[in-house]
What we know:
single chain, two-stranded antiparallel ribbon
Amino acid sequence: xxxxxxxxxxxxxxxxxxxxxxxxxxxxxxxxxxxxxxxxxxxxxxxxxxxxxxxxxxxxxxxxxxxxxxxxxxxxxxxxxxxx
Length: 84
Ligand SMILES: [Zn+2]
């Protein structure tokens, strides 16, 4: 299990506030929980069911082999100096 901090928005008053849950590191399972919208943070004191769902996205990058003539990574075309 891993502790995860996330933010949720109250469906009654729209206040965004923090929550903490344990997440199963293998399958990403997180338990539902009943919380109270925090009146001390300006919330409405109503009960809310949190049903967190864990999703992870990843950026992808190409591997580019540097040429022997130019051992420094090539600059993008829009950042090159204009040639005289
Ligand atoms: Zn609320």
